[in-house]
Amino acid sequence: MFIIGLFKKLVLADNLANLANPVFVMADNNESIGIVSSWVGALAYTFQLYFDFSAYSDMAIGLGLMFGLMLPLNFYSPYKSVSIVDFWRRWHITLSTFLRDYLYIPLGGNKNGKFNRYRNLLLTMLLGGLWHGAGWNFIIWGGLHGIYLVINHGFSNILSNLNFKLPKVLGIMITMFAVIVAWVFFRAETTEGAFKIISSMFM
Q: What is the Cα–Cα distance from 46 to 193, expressed in whole angstroms?
């Protein structure tokens, strides 16, 4: 487990960072970025972040096993998620558990109607974004995921009432797209840089 984590960090994450960093630096410096470069930067960072985080988790699990300790699994193929709800069950599992137990549930959780449930989801993710750093980009990232979760729950209710299930492949594609867009704000140093990459991705 330790060697697998070390491989993810040194071989995968660090090399992907070499692709992602120049794009985000250019965006933060308000330099021109083409559609290909913006997508390369966004995708490279998306996988860099996963391999970075899962690498540290794997190495910690490996070190723990060397001393007879069983640490919890923290990443469970999050980019195979079929929805944002599924994503947060798979991505940084200990963080998701913390947000649920110490923010979402104390705020009221899913009690007292749908409006309060959606409000609590938004507040939890906004606070989760702020926990990562005192900057607008982290707040936007958290806010986006809060909105994603609200839409996910609302859309799931509609599909359930219609007795219709979204195809798995389509669910994965929609989820991945939403996650990539949010990661741009998480990585960019400036809000202007994030919006520049987002706009370049679609123009």
A: 16
137-174 pLDDT tens trace = 999 999 999 999 999 999 999 998 888 889 999 999 99
Return d(Cα 127, Cα 120) in angstroms, integer.
10
Tokens of 83: 């929805």
How far is 92 from 16, CA to CA, in rounded Å?
Answer: 20
Q: Are 117 and 110 in contact (CB under 8 A)?
A: yes
What residues are annotated to the active site? 132
